[in-house]
Write a structure and sequence with these properties.
The chain is mainly β and 418 residues long. The protein contains 5 helices and 25 strands. The N terminus is likely disordered.
Length: 418
Amino acid sequence: MAPRNKSPNMVWVVKSKQPAKTTTEPANEKKTSSLLSDSSLLSDSISKLQLSSKDHTSSPDWSNLPEELLHIISSKLQDRFDFIHARSVCRPWRSIFPYPSSPLRTTYSLPSFHKFPHRGRGGDVCTLERFPVFLFRLQSASPPQFFVGGVGPDKSEDHVVNIADCQIIPLGYMCRMVGYDPDSLATSYRAAAILPLNEDTGEFVVLIGYAHHILALRSTEMIWRRVELCSRADCSDIVTFRGKFYAVFINGDVFAIDPYILETTPLRPPNIPGCGRQNYLVPYGDDEGLYLVERIIVRNGVLSFTKMVCRVSVLDVEAGEWVVVSDLGDRVLLIGKPGNSSGNGSCSAKELPEGCGVSGGSMLFINEIFDETFPYKYGVDSGNPGDDLNVWRCSRETRVTILNKSPMVALRIERAEP
């Protein structure tokens, strides 16, 4: 594939009350499967489900489906995500649908980047792991409990979360370097991401944040090289979106990086006078949108995470602009790195039942220093007449307790006491 043309520098556009939209056409809807259309078992099975669900307060009892029909469904499943979902429906389904034989995690053995630019010994290697991340909602828990994390290849999730009692929502893929903690001061490694260049040949490019550098490795060369014309600050995270890398730095810089020619485009939002900020990049869906969340820190003030405000923008790819938004629609942004990974997650609140504590148009910081936090929403009245309402602020109607951070993030969400 030929190198892409250089895109213009991004500019900042403020559009108040602008809904979170992207200019791209919506993804093609998946065709409805016809695997059940010719099955003689279908009508009887549906009748049983209708009888079991006449009481609208309860869900259909999917365990009533005959085993023959389950075997037909199992033979048609190809995606490993589908097997994980199927195993979580009920215990009879768990015994019919086998655990995916191929690993959910993909590993890459790469030359070591330790002490770059000095090359290590010929046998020095590091391992990059790319894995899917899920939001698990424990259906029997009251108050509601959630888990955020990956699924291991050795059925390890069965020992952490009983997925037979969970609703499972995919949050996309994340990456991590095995044995490296991006939050540790003992290492200069901070983030990693991978993009495929050619599915037929398996060619790919890896980017990592290391010390004050962004390092790139092509699978055809297997040599780490420094990406030029990038920020001089430490990288805090790297994500992928529509075939490009996006890196965010601790000083607020944001850069888009072309994986073919490693050309960089600065996307830094304007400074906020008298304030610092922590920036987070959050992809949504299957390359449907890329959000920039700025957590604003007032300098020379008392640091209080619960009193911080945020500014949120979405990348308009066609116009080449960051657009400030006040509405996320039904989207929920989950900000935090589970399991020493890179990237943040997101999902649609439409996939969650009402009353579960998570609602659309909100953000959750799931890996805070303290064990208690609150969802962020737009236009929350803090009770102080001098506070600006045109920002994202903690909504104290709901309290989020962080029960655990490793190997999975565990959350309890409940109504806050007045």
